[in-house]
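Quick question: what would this complex look like in 3D?
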Amino acid sequence: MQGIGGLTGDIVLNTLGQIIPLIIGVVVGVVVLEFLLYNLLAKTLKVKNALAYTLLAPAAIAILAFMLYPLFFNVLLAFSDLKRTTFPCYSPIARGECQLDHLYGLDYAVKNFSDVFFRVRDGEIIGWGRLLRTADSTFPVLLGRTVLWTVVNVIFHFSGGLALALIMNQKIRFRGIYRALIVIPWALPGVITALTWKQEFHAEYGFVNTLLQGIGLQPVGWLRDATAAFVAVTFVNIWLGIPFYMVMLLGGLQSISAEYYEAAQMDGAGAWHRFRFITMPLLRPILIPAVTLDVIWTFNKLDLIVIMTGGGPEEKTNILVSALYNAAFGTAATQQLGFAAAFSIVIFFILFLFAIVWITTSGGLKEIYDR
Amino acid sequence: MSTITQPTPTAARRQQNGLTSQQIRAGIGGVIAVGGLVLMVANQMNVIFLLVGLLLGLLVWKPFHGILVAYSIISVYPVLRIVSISLRPSTGLLSRSLDIIPAGATLQSYNNLFNEEPFLQWVWNSLSITVTVSIIGVAVAATGAYAFSRWRFFGRRPALIFLLTTQMIPAGMLVIPIFVIVAQLGLANQIIGLVLAYISTAVPFSIWILKGYYDTIPPDLEEAAMVDGCNRMEAFWRIILPLSTPALSIVFLFNFLAAWSEFIVAKVILTAQSVMTWPLGLNQLIGTFQTDWGKYAAGSVLVTVPVLLLFMWQSKYLISGLTLGSVKS
């Protein structure tokens, strides 16, 4: 190995040679584009709000190219038979043997989407679709586990964060120090969290079992047993999520004027009533968006599960998104991108349905939309 | 009693006994802590007993502080343990000790990390990708967000709602097409491929944050400047952008932090050793538990410290960032 830590001058120059032109290109491109577009819109076409459209153009192009086009392409992939073996057919660069007579078609889409839900043999539905390799990885099982995972996490995030915020909102000494310490899990890079906890749940060398034995309990084969592994992953995600709520809710609590509580106390309201009728309603504007975001983040929490358990043992800690990842990029046997694209669309619609129902019933994001 | 306030009945009852509940709790807490000390001595100086005794004692004495101390320990201990493991000598790597400072602490693991692994190369790759994404994200979003903030143009509301909806998209839904597109363009194992992939999520988020910040800057500022002869773009460039430095740097930092520790997309797009980012490298080290635990821990400490420092720096910006009302001066 050359150079310390594998870093040599050549590598540095090579990387700089790629990124500096990219940055300069983008910045110059943005300026030139805006100049030309503004002249076109304002002076030639005399469009109303020409400057607004001009200013939007770079962002619009970036979102079109890097967000909308991939999303559109994902839908297209759901109409394809893309998998490891047919990859050369779909890639102009790695062109090779191709045995497909057509690349995209409705027949593929029907197969991909029905594979998500059903297993078909000889034109008859013989059961739930097998999304991964084990017979247990069916859509209802994964959906059920995802809902359980989301509900448990959000409840613990919320109650833990609220309890800590309520305590921290008292006149308590060392508040700044506690706050700084409790926020650390949130500030930690997610990969480090996942990799480190994976090691700490190691049956022999991790500190979790050492602690259990220290207080006289039996060690647990955390990541070897399906239930224990799910408990372990859930615990880590709860640990990760509490600081977010604590910070949000503490901010909310501190903005509630003390006069409300004084008035309520005069009227003889007890602690529970003050909490129920003053604290909770006034926290609502912060709470509802926080819960909404948390549900979405938890539902989509992919990296923690992929790193800590890889969905195992026996695919029993997979939630929908990690099953999707494993179907698309897991071992070569299940690497079916066309099917995975269809699966991802199904997952998105579940989340989207939830969001619509939740937002219309709670009115939670109203103030965000109306801004 | 010279004060006017009436003592509550319970407080009065306690005073008859000569002890306040605070003192009783302090006493019980003290007994529990001493009990922990005794158990420690009885169990071959096992420090766990003393610590548990102290904590339970504190919980009884001052419950709020007890809970906060307990939760702070839960938050910080796993992090301190990474530091601890990174300092272990190679003979004691798999020791089951719970000590924060290991016996025979040494920097050997750091040395091994630099000599045996291309750690700096991983960090360099991550750094160049991250900085590029952050710069492009801010540059592209800064003007777009301004348009969202100041104009009521056709399609504004649906566009804003779309930007919010992008937060809901499962990673898998973008990873699959991006993986295929990057492969089709021949950008797999290229730093640029990953930069383009990250920009897709960085831009909508940046626009959202910056728009929120521009909204808090009164339009009077630009109007005053335009009366003085600036055109709209000059007003934006000379007044809004400088005032938005805190928000711009926060967006830069958020993009930076998100890309710095991104794992899934990087794992899918980068497979060659020479382009690996540090999350991939450290993940590889974990693969072989026995030998590389120390090197993993050392690497984790080195990549985490800058992130924690950035977090502190950023919170300072958040406070100093609210320079509203400058229109009067």
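Answer marked as accepted. The CA atoms of residues 185 and 295 of chain A lie 19 Å apart.
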